[in-house]
Amino acid sequence: MRLPDLPRIALALALTLPAAAQTPATLTGNWLVTGEDQSDPFYLRMTLDQQGDKLSGTLTSDKFQGGTVTGNAIHFIVSNNRGGSEEIHATVANGVITGTAIGTGHGEPTPHAVSFTAKPVPPLHNGKPAHYDFTPTVFYREFSPANKPVLTIHPLDTVHTTTVDAGGTDEHGVDRTRGGNPETGPFYIEGALPGDTLVIHINHLRLNRNWAISDDYLVDRALTRDLTLSSKDNGKSVRWNLDLAKGLAAPQDPGPHMKSFTIPVHPMLGCVATAVGRDTAPPRTQDSGSYGGNMDFNGLNEGDTLYLPVSNPGALLYLGDAHALQGDGELNGNALETSMDVEFTVDVLPGKRINTPRVETGADIISLGLDGSIDSAFADATGDMAQWLADDYKLTPSEVAEFLGVASEYHVSEVADRNAGVVLKIAKSKLSTLPAPQPSSGDDPTVPHISK
Questions:
Q1: In this structure, are strands 62-70 and 131-133 parallel, antiparallel, or unpaired?
Q2: For residue range 30-41, what is the model confidence (pLDDT) as tens digits?
Q3: Which residues, 6+ apart, have CB-to-CB distance to 292 below 8 Å?
Q4: Span 301-330, mean pLDDT?
Q5: Domains in the chain, please, with CATH?
Q6: pLDDT tens, position by position, 408-440
Q7: Residue 27 pLDDT
Q8: Predicted confidence band at 90 (pLDDT cuts at 50, 70, 90)?
Q9: Which end of the chain has fewer CB atoms surrounding its CB within 10 Å, N or C?
């Protein structure tokens, strides 16, 4: 079994500390485990808690207890129901753990050896939160961990920045880069580790120019045969005027039946993402997945909070693809594409692992399912919300089913791209009679977090 799969397998860890090495007084704390498996880099969070000769902790999301410390020898076992096992022999010198993991188990009939290094992680920054004004000069079209961070920030810091539109044009109408949802970022969040959750609080979304671009066709998922025939001549670009003072949008060259048509703007970001893991091919910025990405969810607005899984040290946060307005599904294959001023504040939930993006608004908690079909996205959103209710509200599987059966509200959020999007909303008013939410097992209650 390969070391990157450790969060899902049984683990036996034996660390032998040479007498000549500089041994830490205690192993208690967070450790970042790094290495390569068949040339694929990986990162894991390991938390150790030493109490005398007793040791407990977690590796990513798997708990263990009953470990022992005898002299310079350390031993603990993490188990689950997958039947795998991993034996690790390592040494500690100058506060750094190095060693080799040799594992066998479910799906791995022969031993598999992986070398690794683990270094202690300093506590999250507790200084005064900072505010940054960041002007982007480079834009990326992949949610890649290999792109150089444009700015390093800490939890509770705030950033004000700008985005170009999906075609690469800025607020002055200047083409700054090629199209394809070019992103601002990535921002490196000090202290964010794989297995954590990154919190992005959207403080402000402000339109910064008076026009937007869209199209007049409908995406394939929306078309019947008759609608395909009747709209066969569609496909032209449509420019929209944005009245920033009144907050209204209208076609610049409307057809005869839409000459008086206006509609209120509703600014949103089509893309917010953390970089995928280094063992995954970097997705294009037109794509979406567990990392977020091109979600095109019009329910993520100013004042809302987005939760994304962390797969790399620093999380590497990207954002872009600003929309002045978008209906459910992004039926034109785009929205009212424009540029935007953005202000956000970040936080980290250490050790809290989620598998798909989540949103919290003043009124709702929301799970986003992003998958190749609407059916699969529907199931992903349902599965994540079930996990959310079990972790934070301690509902049993039976109670989850009863609650979802009467409290769920679903929306189709995205049908324009490779992955469809389905969101599951639960009104907070419907949660009010449940027991107060409790921190998940991985949360660290001593870490300050953004208050809503």
A1: unpaired
A2: 889 888 877 778
A3: 271, 272, 273, 274, 306, 308, 357
A4: 97
A5: 3-121 (no CATH), 131-210+265-431 (2.60.120.580)
A6: 999 999 999 999 999 999 999 999 999 888 765
A7: 82
A8: confident
A9: C
Give CA–CA dist 327/330, Å, rounded.
Answer: 6
Q: What are phi and psi of 6, to 5 degrees?
A: -55, -35
Q: Which residue has the higher pLDDT, 88 or 432?
A: 432
Chain centroid to Cα 279, Å, comes to 16
How far is residue 358 CA from its own chain's centroid? 8
The string of DSSP letters for 368-420 reads EEEESSHHHHHHHHHHHHHHHHHHHH---HHHHHHHHHHH-EEEEEE-SSSSE
Helix (H) or strand (E) holding 34: strand 29-37
Dist CA 330 CA 296 (whole Å): 7
- Distance CA(116)–CA(35), nearest Å, equals 4
The residue behind tokens 């870490």 is 447
The band of 173, judged by pLDDT with boundaries at 50, 70 and 90, is very high
Would strands 409-414 and 292-294 be described as parallel, antiparallel, or unpaired? Answer: unpaired
Judging by DSSP bridges, how do beta strands 183-189 and 151-153 pair with one another? Answer: parallel
